[in-house]
Amino acid sequence: MAFLSRRSFLSGTALAGAALLTRPVLAEPKATKLRLGGPVFLKTDDPEALAREHRRLGYSAAYAPEADLNDAARLTAIRKAYAAADVLLAEVGAWVNMLDADAAKRRQNLDYVTRRLALAEELGALVCVDIAGSYNPTRWDGPDPRNLSTDFFDATVENCRKVIDAVKPKRTKFALEMMGWSLPDGPDAYLRFVRAIDRPGFGVHVDIANIINTPQRFYDNTALINETFRKLGRWIVSAHAKDVHGKDVHFAETAPGRGSLDYLAYIRNVTSLGREVPLMLEHLRTPEEYDEARAYVMRRAGEAKIPLA
User: Fold this and answer.
1) What residues pair up with 173 in beta bridges, in sequence order?
2) What average pLDDT does this structure show over 278-289?
3) C-alpha 169: how far from its chain's center?
4) Rounded to whole angstroms, what are the CA distances from 79 to 47, 198, 275, 283?
5) Which of 35, 158, 177, 287 keeps 20 to 30 A from 280, CA to CA?
6) Are 158 and 133 in contact (CB under 8 A)?
7) Which residues contact 91 (CB under 8 A, 6 or more apart)?
8) What's the CA gap between 293 and 256, in Å, rounded?
9) Burial group, residue 23, by CB count within 10 angstroms (0-12, 13-18, 19+)
10) So where are the chain's domains?
11) Given strand 173-176, what is the order of strands in its sheet?
């Protein structure tokens, strides 16, 4: 083997360096505007009026209004009204226990979830969301040690596949709600579901408040937020906006701004995915509480220099 002279070596490394410098560099995803959404309290079924009310409140994303899957005229009216107002249909909820202990009830619940996913597909909503379920005998979403078991995981994978395969969605995704007392209880558990379910129709729905279930996660929630978006970002389609505060020996949810979540980190992550991911307020009781929460999130977005859509 011939030895390189020092001059030849330096010349070669210079050329290699030049090649690296001229190689195309993949651009970072462009930050998007914040699509904030939440419930409205206008007493009407008129899609145009509902869409206008979202805009009046500063919302650019919405929970899908109720509609019959077989009412083609209403489905069309909803799609047109919300698109005209530039309000993104973010979510169709399917809040039932897919792991109910009663076999007949479980089949009924799975059928309901399938219809809700079909509704989301017809409306063009981003996601249909449900919890995986619970083995708790008295509460549909209650804690149970079996909710962290292999049986729970395997049954949930099978349920999600059944629902997705029945609908074969093209415009929407089916996703699981993050939970503190059952799977998926964090980014690693959710990633296991993504890989095991192995369907393009499965997406990720983020709810950071729901997975604050240890003191470490509570006090270092910025790291949890960043880890969640780093590991799951390519599949994330929507997010819920709540907050968490310590209460006695556990954690309780509250309105954004009344707890300890790092909302600057949350908003920055939501808007840095390179596509529109709505951030949806939920679980508050009155219009005044939503006004407070909405103002807080908008203020934090302003501090982060992230414009609203």
Assistant:
1) 127
2) 97
3) 17
4) 9, 29, 20, 25
5) 158
6) no
7) 63, 64, 120, 125, 126, 127, 128, 129, 238, 278, 280
8) 5
9) exposed
10) 31-303
11) 173-176, 127-130, 88-93, 61-63, 36-37, 279-281, 236-241, 204-206
Residue 194, both tokens? 């993504």
What would the pLDDT profile of 191-227 be if each residue is shown by its tens digit? 999 999 999 999 999 999 999 999 999 999 999 999 9
CATH of 31-303 among 1.10.340.30, 3.40.50.800, 3.20.20.150, 3.40.50.2300 = 3.20.20.150
Q: Are 129 and 91 in contact (CB under 8 A)?
A: yes
- In single-letter form, the type of residue at position 119 comes to L
Residue 39 has pLDDT above 60, yes or no: yes
Confidence of residue 15 (pLDDT cuts 50, 70, 90): very low
Q: Which of 18-27, 92-101, 111-120, 232-241 has the lowest mean pLDDT?
A: 18-27
Task: Compute φ and ψ for 94, nearest 5 degrees.
Answer: -140, 70
Instruction: Specify the pLDDT at position 248.
Output: 82
* DSSP-derived secondary structure for the chain: -PPPPHHHHHHHHHHHHHHHHHS--PPPPPPPPB-EE---------HHHHHHHHHHTT-SEEEPPP--TT-HHHHHHHHHHHHHTT-EEEEEE--S-TT-SSHHHHHHHHHHHHHHHHHHHHHT-SEEEE------SS-TT---GGGGSHHHHHHHHHHHHHHHHHH--SS-EEEEPP-SSSSS-SHHHHHHHHHHH--TTB-EEE-GGGG--SHHHHHTHHHHHHHHHHHHGGGEEEEEE-EEEEETTEEEEE-TTSS---HHHHHHHHTTSSS---EEE-S--SHHHHHHHHHHHHHHHHHTT--B-
Please give the Cα distance from 208 to 244 (Å, whole number). Answer: 9
Mean pLDDT across the chain = 92
Q: What is the percentage of the chain residues whose pLDDT exceeds 70?
A: 90
